[in-house]
Write a structure and sequence with these properties.
12 helices, 5-stranded antiparallel β-sheet, Aminoglycoside 3'-phosphotransferase, Chain: A, domain 2, two-stranded antiparallel ribbon, Phosphorylase Kinase, domain 1, 363 residues, 11% strand, alpha+beta, 2 domains
Length: 363
């Protein structure tokens, strides 16, 4: 299978593309662009939009004929009014290109088109990677050893990203260094308050609580922003990541915040964020939260992580704000998928978990 989803759960299933796309693409204009900027090919092109995902519409594009058939993945901005700085496909293209050849596996990029006159919005074209997509974090059907190996590989990749020399890669201007968490709290507060959906009491409380509990100290690294088990493509038969996907939220930021986003799965259940809470990790062979954090610390040269729960709470606040935006777009009729209302409604569940954790810190 091949996978490249817009961010947020549930991601698309590449085996079940839509017969009728929500955001059609003019095939003739796209074919002309691909012939001029990617590679020459013969015959017609086929364009299928992937199901699921809530942000940038994503398509499988098949070109050529007979033995010359090639497949690509196209990511575009959705049509309609967009919140400031959202749906930045240009940034996705830049980070994917910069990471090529590093210890962080990514799809190969082919072309970025910022001219909206071609298909209606900006888009980019990248490699269609073959591999496994693991939707369930409990990894059903695997042995204990296989599960442990897959989680070790996930840990290795996120640690490699946070050790990546972004300055040497020409990414010094990819974001603003310093005060990342403070700026993110302000950003997602504004995004949440600007979205046309009902307010969530736990979110309003977190907006007051978080600025007073930001962990001291600061670091700057490339952060993915949406790193989790179903945002990578594994090798068809090995516990090896072939490609990390969904870089729309990537920037320069605090690596511990980025890592906590993935580890959030250990604190949330399946109904909240496709999480691990309530699973028998010992019998499954999946590391506990403490074990997974310790492995990351070893790989990144840390002794421990202070104020760990605050990083988790912040990420729950952040994902709840994003989900709230998904719901708002669905209510306005501008969603990237048909299940956006159901997905966006989970913002309240995640925010409630975060607020309960925050209350526990304050006693």
């Amino acid at each position: 299978m091949t996978r490249c989803s817009p961010n947020l759960f549930p991601a698309f299933d590449p085996a079940a593309t839509l017969a009728e796309t929500l955001h059609p693409i003019p095939r003739g204009a796209l074919a002309d662009y691909l012939r001029a900027h990617v590679e020459p090919f013969r015959g017609e092109i086929a364009v299928e939009q992937f199901q699921g995902g809530q942000s940038n519409p994503t398509y499988r594009v098949t070109t050529g004929a007979d033995q010359h058939t090639r497949r690509y993945v196209l990511r575009r901005k959705p049509p309609g009014h967009l919140l400031p700085s959202a749906h930045a496909v240009e940034r996705e293209y830049r980070i994917l290109s910069a990471l090529a050849g590093s210890q962080v596996p990514v799809p190969r990029t082919f072309a970025l088109c910022e001219d909206p006159s071609v298909i209606g919005t900006a888009f980019f074209v990248m490699e269609y990677v073959e591999g496994r997509i693991l939707w369930d974090p409990t990894l059903p059907g695997m042995t204990r050893g296989e599960r442990a190996a897959h989680y070790a590989e996930l840990n290795r990749v996120i640690a490699a990203l946070h050790c990546f020399d972004y300055e040497a890669a020409g990414l010094s201007g990819f974001g603003r260094p310093g005060n990342y968490i403070e700026r993110q709290i302000a950003r997602w507060t504004k995004q949440y308050q600007a979205a046309a959906a009902d307010r969530i009491p736990a979110m309003d409380r977190l907006i007051e609580w978080l600025p007073h509990h930001v962990p001291p100290g600061d670091e700057t690294r490339v952060v993915h922003g949406d790193y989790r088990i179903d945002n990578v493509i594994f090798h068809p038969a090995e516990p090896r990541v072939l490609a990390v996907l969904d870089w729309e939220l990537s920037t320069l930021g605090h690596p511990l915040s980025d890592f906590a986003y993935q580890v959030m799965a250990w604190r949330l259940g399946q109904h909240e964020f496709r999480g691990l809470r309530g699973s028998d990790l010992e019998s499954l062979g999946i590391p506990t939260e403490d074990e997974y954090v310790a492995a990351y610390c070893r790989r990144t040269g840390r002794d421990a992580i202070a104020n760990w729960d605050v990083y988790l709470i912040f990420n729950m606040f952040r994902i709840a704000a994003i989900l709230h935006g998904v719901l708002a777009r669905a209510l306005q009729g501008n969603a990237a998928s048909r299940n956006a209302v159901e997905t966006g409604s989970r913002a309240r569940l995640v925010a409630d978990v975060a607020w309960q954790m925050a209350k526990g810190i304050d006693g």
